[in-house]
Amino acid sequence: MGNYYKEKLSAQKLYQVYDTQIQRISQYLQAEIDFVKKNLSKTQNVLELGAGYGRIVRELAPYCNSIIGIDISKESVELGREYLKEYPNADMVVMDVHNMQFSMPVDIVLCLQNGLSAMRVDSAVIHRILEMLAPGGVAYFSSYSVKFWDFRLKWFEEQATNGLLGEIDYAKTQNGMIICKDGFKAFTHTLEDFKKIGEESGYPYEVQEVDESSIFLIIHKIKKL
Question: Helix 149-161 and helix 23-37: axis angle, to 10°?
Answer without folding.
Answer: 120
